[in-house]
């Protein structure tokens, strides 16, 4: 047997490709398993019934009247699953969007478990596809091993798994933005192919969540720059600048076209009546709304969003309950909810991008979009969860792979060790990815001590609470319940009474309280908790107490 010659090298390359494909399949399979099992076990989170109910109305009534503060594309993705669940819903519902979700899931003879699983399934599939985007982006920068490293970080990210297994909009929006950045990067070589795709991906992001709008000017600038680079050395500079500006304008036209197409897909007649009490928006924000070449439903949705931003919300960070918002909330939440090994690789990858000459051109494509979006998000008024910064783990998975571009043995060894650390930390959290925190903050069971809301307790454990009460506390016939969520406890067999409606002296036996309510406890609930003893924990989001 000979080991030289082109035949042997070809076989070796083929074996390496097969190993790469096998590794990619394995990583995506474990992520799919984590997301599917999580989706089957969790009751609806607070936002999901609104999106699912709106998705059903989109398909059956072609109406835009519900949930205008979010564009339709993400809900159309959800609708691709709900059509297989065949849920019952009487047409012409006139209540608010919260009531719509309740009517669909709990008051129309539907099985909420079945409806929610089918609603979540398309988002799971889309999350897996975005994993291939992360793989491809990192592979373009650092090769096959780098692409595999980025995919590993993406597929083991607790935040990505959490949001990828829910019928919500945060993961699809982040995925479309990273796709747009990758297409813009590839346009440096083949602008005619990739610039239109960058426009489609950018339009999809904007048609999914309005919070992606701050990235649009940057993505358009990157599109123009890529066209400029593609024509380097050809023609006069002035002409190349004009062509680059035209290319960016062309991408902008595609973005606008995608947004209009999404609204027309819901209602070809674009019937729209502004909701009652639509917030009035003036000044620069009002000028921006009026200037955008989007459907009126989109622009009125922006007014609703700005109305939310003008409200005062309560936040909770590191044990402190406060009113308003903190500019450092999201960075701090990311520090808590990101695996330690991932944090180290993010930092190393960002430094490598700046240090390795051949990677420096990628800095605006990999680091600037999440930086711009994070800067915009930190100015928001709602300190409710790390999901508002979900684009950070998606983009920085690509950046982390750049450590390997240093081409040092220690870099390969450190990357492998840290990636394994990330995987172990993630797997240990299964199936409680939503309340995940890293080991420095005590793990998922301790997250409630430093964060609240969708970081910990988003209403996802109502079904688990019902199971726990049946299995471990069957003799306690009277249960008191303070639940933060959109689920209906009685549907799950929990017939709990509200302890805040009676004098504390009448509250005895089991008291189940959502951990966000514990974090925000004041007055009567605080007094009740002082006189109670914690005896059980459900999903690290609900605590069961015993009252004497």
Question: How do you describe this structure in short?
Answer:
This protein is mainly alpha-helical and 548 residues long. It has helices at residues 6-41, 48-61, 73-85, 97-106, 112-142, 144-156, 158-164, 170-186, 191-206, 215-230, 237-266, 283-291, 296-309, 329-337, 340-355, 363-366, 368-377, 391-400, 409-429, 462-472, 515-519, 523-530; strands at residues 314-317, 320-323, 479-482, 509-514, 533-538, 542-547.
How would you portray this structure in words?
This protein has 22 helices and six strands. It has 548 residues and is mainly alpha-helical. The strands form two sheets. The protein has a four-stranded mixed β-sheet with strand order 3-4-6-5. The mean pLDDT is 95.
Topology (elements, then pairings):
Elements: H1 6-41, H2 48-61, H3 73-85, H4 97-106, H5 112-142, H6 144-156, H7 158-164, H8 170-186, H9 191-206, H10 215-230, H11 237-266, H12 283-291, H13 296-309, E1 314-317, E2 320-323, H14 329-337, H15 340-355, H16 363-366, H17 368-377, H18 391-400, H19 409-429, H20 462-472, E3 479-482, E4 509-514, H21 515-519, H22 523-530, E5 533-538, E6 542-547
Parallel strand pairs: 3-4
Antiparallel strand pairs: 1-2, 4-6, 5-6
Helix pairs in contact: 1-5, 1-6, 2-3, 2-4, 3-5, 5-6, 5-8, 5-18, 6-18, 6-19, 8-9, 8-10, 8-18, 9-10, 9-11, 10-11, 12-13, 15-18, 15-19, 17-18
């Amino acid at each position: 047997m000979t080991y030289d010659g082109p035949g042997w090298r070809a076989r070796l390359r083929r074996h390496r490709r097969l190993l790469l494909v096998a590794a990619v399949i394995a990583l995506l399979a474990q992520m799919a398993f984590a997301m599917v099992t999580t989706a089957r076990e969790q009751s609806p989170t607070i936002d999901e019934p609104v999106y699912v109910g709106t998705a059903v109305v989109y398909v059956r009534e072609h109406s835009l009247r519900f949930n205008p503060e979010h564009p339709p594309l993400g809900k159309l993705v959800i609708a691709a699953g709900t059509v297989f669940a065949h849920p019952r819903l009487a047409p012409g519902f006139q209540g608010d969007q919260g009531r719509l979700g309740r009517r669909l899931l709990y008051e129309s003879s539907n099985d909420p478990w079945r409806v929610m699983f089918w609603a979540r399934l398309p988002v799971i599939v889309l999350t897996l596809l975005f994993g291939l985007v992360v793989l491809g982006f990192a592979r373009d920068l650092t090769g096959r091993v780098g692409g595999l490293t980025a995919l590993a970080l993406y597929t083991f990210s607790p935040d990505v798994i959490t949001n990828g297994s829910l019928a919500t909009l945060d993961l699809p929006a982040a995925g479309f933005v990273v796709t747009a950045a990758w297409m813009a990067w590839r346009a440096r070589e083949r602008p005619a192919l990739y610039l239109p795709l960058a426009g489609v991906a950018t339009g999809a992001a904007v048609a999914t969540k309005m919070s992606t709008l701050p990235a649009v000017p940057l993505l358009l600038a990157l599109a123009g720059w890529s066209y400029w680079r593609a024509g380097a050395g050809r023609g006069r500079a002035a002409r190349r600048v004009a062509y680059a500006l035209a290319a960016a304008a062309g991408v902008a036209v595609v973005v606008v076209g995608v947004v209009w197409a999404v609204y027309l897909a819901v209602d070809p007649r674009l019937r729209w009546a502004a909701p009652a009490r639509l917030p009035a928006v003036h000044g620069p924000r009002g000028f921006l709304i009026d200037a955008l070449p989007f459907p009126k439903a989109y622009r009125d949705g922006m007014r609703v969003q700005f109305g939310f931003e003008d409200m005062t919300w309560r936040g909770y960070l590191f044990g402190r309950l406060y009113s308003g918002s903190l500019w450092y909330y999201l960075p701090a939440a990311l520090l808590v909810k990101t695996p330690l090994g991932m944090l180290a690789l993010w930092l190393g990858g960002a430094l490598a991008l700046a240090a390795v000459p051949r990677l420096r051109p990628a800095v605006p494509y990999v680091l600037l979009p999440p930086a711009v979006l994070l800067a915009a998000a930190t100015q928001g008024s709602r300190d409710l969860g790390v999901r508002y910064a979900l684009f950070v783990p998606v983009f920085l998975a690509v950046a982390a792979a750049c450590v390997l571009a240093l081409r040092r043995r220690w870099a390969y060894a450190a990357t492998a060790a840290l990636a394994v650390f990330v995987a172990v930390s993630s797997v240990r959290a299964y199936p409680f990815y939503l309340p995940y925190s890293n080991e420095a903050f005590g793990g998922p069971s301790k997250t409630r001590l430093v964060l609240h809301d969708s970081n910990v307790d988003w209403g996802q454990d109502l079904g688990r609470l019902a199971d726990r009460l049946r299995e471990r506390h069957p003799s306690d016939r009277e249960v008191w319940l303070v639940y933060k969520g959109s689920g209906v406890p009685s549907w799950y067999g929990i017939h709990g009474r509200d302890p805040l409606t009676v004098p504390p002296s009448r509250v005895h036996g089991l008291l189940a309280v959502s951990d966000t309510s514990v974090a925000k406890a004041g007055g009567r609930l605080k007094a009740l908790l002082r006189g109670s003893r914690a005896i059980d924990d459900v999903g690290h989001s609900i605590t069961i107490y015993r009252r004497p």
